[in-house]
Amino acid sequence: xxxxxxxxxxxxxxxxxxxxxxxxxxxxxxxxxxxxxxxxxxxxxxxxxxxxxxxxxxxxxxxxxxxxxxxxxxxxxxxxxxxxxxxxxxxxxxxxxxxxxxxxxxxxxxxxxxxxxxxxxxxxxxxxxxxxxxxxxxxxxxxxxxxxxxxxxxxxxxxxxxxxxxxxxxxxxxxxxxxxxxxxxxxxxxxxxxxxxxxxxxxxxxxxxxxxxxxxxxxxxxxxxxxxxxxxxxxxxxxxxxxxxxxxxxxxxxxxxxxxxxxxxxxxxxxxxxxxxxxxxxxxxxxxxxxxxxxxxxxxxxxxxxxxxxxxxxxxxxxxxxxxxxxxxxxxxxxxxxxxxxxxxxxxxxxxxxxxxxxxxxxxxxxxxxxxxxxxxxxxxxxxxxxxxxxxxxxxxxxxxxxxxxxxxxxxxxxxxxxxxxxxxxxxxxxxxxxxxxxxxxxxxxxxxxxxxxxxxxxxxxxxxx
Length: 466
What we know:
Layout lengths: L7 H10 L4 H19 L2 E4 L1 H16 L11 E5 L26 H8 L3 E6 L28 H9 L4 E6 L5 H6 L3 E4 L19 E6 L2 H12 L15 E5 L9 H16 L3 E5 L7 H16 L1 H6 L6 H10 L4 H24 L2 E5 L12 E3 L5 E3 H7 L2 H6 L3 E8 L5 E8 L4 H12 L12 H12 L4
Parallel strand pairs: 2-3, 2-4, 7-8, 7-9
Antiparallel strand pairs: 1-3, 4-6, 5-6, 5-12, 9-13, 10-11, 12-13
Helix pairs in contact: 2-3, 7-15, 9-11, 9-12
């Protein structure tokens, strides 16, 4: 196994014993970046020399007995909404041309203090306002969307060009690309990870969290983000855990492959000792209206000045959304906030009956690039973005923690994710359940198989000879 293929946990163990140095690990990951990044476009920018210097510093500290924990010397990527002093925060937008951060975000500062090695900034859908990240290719198939808005972050982890990454999640933007690229994504409880120094999309819905190749790795990264202690959880069976299986909403309008894989994973939780409980998801008819009713006006308020002074700098899709937000009435926004309060109360009652909810993360696997809609067997036509946000939005509206775990692949070989939603600040329970399931899978932590390279080869072969 080459160093870039290691999980965070395996790399941390090898670094701690001196079997592997941060310098060797970082060099391996940078070589992997050089190999596959031209076909992925996961990164806005990679800073190899700065990464090598950070790795050398981490190795000197380790040798001197001053290691900072499990992330010490481990290379990672930051979504390019997250400030690092002296570096651009582009938000993948022309609006941010020439921007340079004058201070570290809290997240960047905490990861630096943990000894992690920053490789560079990963692409986002412009200002995190979308679910596809169109400039980035899916790590499993170059002709499919990466998911968004943390598409670059998820693709980097899936392809082995970062051992972990940090994304943001306003309506599913960590969990959606993680699911579509076959990796783990954790949206923590609202407010658990500080958003200071992170470009906002919607202040009342935004979350920051890790994208990793295993649940075990997510448990190692999260404490560094929160500034808290490690999150010990009991590995092994799930005896005593009550898992809610939705009888409505979450399995409505999902592809057969997704439903089969997730239901199989839920049964595996039962085999591990969990008790399955049928539950009904409350207030489902209001989910989309509340998500958009909060996000759209808040996003437009954030961009009010620039939208009026330089609207031409925004992509067409983002500009339309921002202009639409200016048409919202204050009363509509207040009704959305009131509905959010009621929805949160109903979910709290639901989570008195069970410890976690298990459901699909997204209703379909990665759509083809350029595909704008999906038609369901009942005749419903839905935009791809609406389909991807539909099952992830409830955890943003309520602020509940949610974890996506790979649970298989569809007939085209594309990854499928299962979402676990839990009580506020019960990340430990989600990690316990996700890790127990993960330990039953022989392919846990594997990187994507490199179909990007083969797709690029086909494209190059089709080009005329010079």
